[in-house]
Amino acid sequence: MMNNFKVIVLALFISLGAFANQEPDKKVIYKKVNGVQLSLNFFFPKKHKKKHEAPTIVFFHGGGWKGGGPSHFYNQCAYLASRGMVAISVQYRTENVYKTTPKECVKDGKSAMRWIRSHASEYGINPNKVVAGGGSAGGHVAAAIATLEGFNEEGEDTSISCIPQALVLFNPVANNSKEGYGYNRVKAYWEAFSPAHNLTENTPPTLIMLGTKDKLFKVSVAKQYQQKMKELGNRCDLILYEDQDHAFFNIDKDKELHFQTMKDADVFLTSLGYLKGSSTISKFRKRIDE
Questions:
Q1: How many CA atoms lie less than 13 Å away from 177 in the CB half-sphere?
Q2: What is the pLDDT along the chain (290 residues), one digit of tens a residue?
Q3: 191: helix, strand or coil
Q4: Are the C-beta atoms of residues 263 and 281 closer than 8 Å to each other?
Q5: Residue among 157, 72, 43, 61 at smallest CA distance from 109
Q6: Which candidate, 250, 271, 268, places its Cα nearest to that of 259?
Q7: H-helix or E-strand spanning residue 267
Q8: Which residue, 244, 237, 238, 282, is CA-closest to 260?
Q9: pTM of the predicted model, to two decimals?
Q10: Closest to 147 measured CA to CA, from 157, 132, 160
């Protein structure tokens, strides 16, 4: 039990590190709740204009529903903006700062998606081409907004869809049963909260990137997720990275895989028509390294 606790603490520590040397082009408040203001961090393609109606990707950071911050995905945002997408990294409430529960993470995720769709014309976004992504607990949030019926902010206009058109998930803790992650924290409502237990034939095409040594979202659990998606007639690509554990894709954990996972996400998004042409990750990496 103590070893598992140490693994979780280490993963959370990694998720809280400094991962990016990019800065957003614009920060916008999308939600005010209980005296808290939450922001969206925008990265735009070069020469982006309102009339462009660009495809968009919305990222949610990791941190076990306890911590972390939007900078976690600034590099991914900067890269995908360089490829022509509007990319957004979301600030959402977490336990350490706001004394909230995992429920609020999902509520904020849904609020962010609805705000983006309702303000799409102001930011040159195509509301019908919005992808969600995230890592670890942020991967859970992304999958949750695509699959869960409840966990909506009180008074919010739920006629605006929060469901993304696709999912890009970095070691998502998307199974919250006893064999998954976080069961003891969400056990009163785990089944309604677990994306793996709420998949339907309408769940969007999904990419899961996972280390083979991940103890928080095990390969066997991920394969069950993939199999259920396929049985429902949905696309679910699972890429396994040999001998890698949780949070392997972060730049301070493994620089090579940090960029490789961006390239793999690029291939997936290109296959769906959200990106065009070949990956430019080598050019982007050179700029980061300078």
A1: 12
A2: 444 434 444 444 444 333 446 899 999 999 999 999 999 999 999 999 999 999 999 999 999 999 999 999 999 999 999 999 999 999 999 999 999 999 999 999 999 999 999 999 999 999 999 999 999 999 999 999 999 999 999 999 999 999 999 999 999 999 999 999 999 999 999 999 999 999 999 999 999 999 999 999 999 999 999 999 999 999 999 999 999 999 999 999 999 999 999 999 999 999 999 999 999 999 999 988 87
A3: helix
A4: yes
A5: 61
A6: 250
A7: helix 255-271
A8: 282
A9: 0.93
A10: 132
CATH superfamily, with its number, for domain 2-289:
Alpha/Beta hydrolase fold, catalytic domain (3.40.50.1820)
How many other CB atoms are there within 10 angstroms of residue 45's CB atom?
18
**Residue count of the chain:** 290
Let me know: does 50 contact 125? Beta carbons within 8 Å.
no
Question: Secondary structure of 145-170 in the HEC alphabet?
Answer: HHHCCCCCCCCCCCCCCCCCCEEEEE
Question: Which residue's entry shows tokens 């909230």?
Answer: 100
Closest by alpha carbon to 249, among 230, 264, 238, 237?
264
Largest CA distance in the chain: 55
Query: Are 1 and 268 within 8 A, CB to CB?
Result: no
Structure tokens at 264: 């793999």
Q: Which residues contact 89 (CB under 8 A, 6 or more apart)?
A: 24, 40, 41, 43, 59, 61, 70, 71, 72, 73, 74, 77
Write the single-letter amino acid at 50. Answer: K
* Residue whose token pair is 């696709």: 166
The structural domains of the chain, with segments of one domain joined by +, span 2-289
Query: In the structure encoding, which two tokens stand for residue 290, read together?
Result: 């300078």
